[in-house]
Write a structure and sequence with these properties.
Elements (H helix, E strand, L loop, with lengths): L3 E12 L2 E13 L4 E5 L6 H8 L7 E9 L2 E2 L5 H7 L4 E4 L3 H4 L6 H13 L3 H14 L5 H4 L9 H13 L5 E5 L7 H18 L2 E6 L2 H7 L2 E6 L2 E7 H6 L4 H8 L49 E2 L5 E2 L2 H7 L11 H11 L1
Helix pairs in contact: 4-5, 5-7, 7-8
């Protein structure tokens, strides 16, 4: 049984210009102890998908679908019920720790509050646990630094504090939303290694939202590629990196600098811009940017299940698999649940 199973997730935003379809019929699952990466360009719907699951959408946002965590639907829970799960069973690390941490409270105050609320420990016990967690994420002199305010920490150290806060209650699932954004390369490597190390120690599941494929290769087991609010491909890290099926996935990989390329080899880029999310129209949303587009791409491509369990929303993948229309898997709710099970 999956730890988290999301089916038919739709996320919309009402704006003065019109309705924005941020996430369209998203399905995925995460097992106990598994690490899943959700990748794609900015605006693909990665962050809004998990925000909807956690009940953290902006006021103009709305979400429908199911998100079953340990058999309970998070989408149907009240705010009080969600508060009992958020920070305890499910923890989230945001991409900007400076805005996530309260600048007016010490690190001690913020960490102790989490422990006392969810675990009911006395203040002294809670503080000792917080210090130990700061030590676990390699904050130097944690007994002294816990008394400081967020602005007294560097960006990398603040991110370490966020990781420590996320792991305080030993959650079953950690969601990390761009945890290495705005950090220099050295600190990125340290944070990436730390997240992977802490996951292995606690056997918790991890959802990593990122556009950094190097991070994905290091800490994740499986990858879900999103484009224009939809899943376009899923598979193991090895399959995605070495045998990508969707042209968009191939474009993402080709745009990453690599040491094994010839010195005179130009860095590739995906032409054009992402589509207008207020007017997506029909057909493959990537076709205007795809060098392999065909006439059939004017139709909506189904989410195809390959024999190895991978998913791809592309007619090229269907042709390569040698499958006819009768073997395609529609992206409706019933079929999507079967697809999710196959992908696992």
């Amino acid at each position: 049984m999956a730890l988290l199973e999301v089916t038919g997730l739709q996320v919309k935003f009402d704006t003065p210009e019109g309705e924005v379809q941020a996430v369209n019929d998203l399905d995925f699952s995460v097992k106990h102890g598994e690490s899943l990466a959700i990748v794609g360009e900015s605006g693909a719907g990665k962050s809004q998908a998990v925000m909807a699951i956690m009940g953290l959408l902006a006021k103009n946002g709305s979400a429908t679908g199911k998100a079953k965590f340990k058999g309970q639907d998070l989408m149907q829970m009240s705010r009080k019920e969600l508060n009992n799960i958020r920070g305890c069973e499910i923890a989230m690390i945001f991409q900007d720790p400076m805005t996530s941490l309260n600048p007016f409270l010490t690190i001690e105050k913020q960490m102790v509050e989490v422990i006392t609320y969810h675990q009911g420990l006395r203040r002294g016990e809670a503080r000792a646990h917080a210090v130990e967690m700061l030590r676990a994420v390699r904050i130097p002199a944690p007994e002294e630094r816990i008394k400081q305010y967020p602005h007294e920490f560097s960006g990398g150290m603040r991110q370490r504090v966020m990781i420590a806060m996320g792991l305080l209650c030993e959650p079953s699932l950690l969601i990390a939303d761009e945890p290495t954004t705005a950090l220099d390369v050295t600190v990125q490597a340290q944070i990436t290694h730390l997240v992977g190390e802490m996951r292995q120690k606690s056997n918790m599941a991890l959802i990593l939202i990122t556009h950094d494929l190097a991070v994905v290769a290091e800490v994740c087991d499986r990858v879900l590629v999103m484009y224009a609010g939809q899943v376009v491909e899923t598979g193991s890290v090895e399959d995605i990196f070495y045998r990508p099926q969707h042209p968009y996935t191939q474009g993402l990989l080709d745009s990453v600098p690599r040491m094994d390329r010839p010195a005179d080899d130009e860095l590739h880029s995906i032409p054009g811009n992402p589509p207008n999310m207020m007017d997506l129209g029909s057909g493959c949303h990537f076709r205007d940017r795809c060098s392999k587009a065909m006439d059939v791409c004017k139709d909506d491509p189904p989410l195809q299940v390959a024999q190895d369990g991978r998913l791809s929303r592309c007619f090229i993948a269907i042709e390569n698999a040698g499958m006819d229309n009768s073997e395609r898997v529609a992206s409706g709710t019933d079929s999507a649940e079967d697809s999710t099970e196959t992908a696992e």
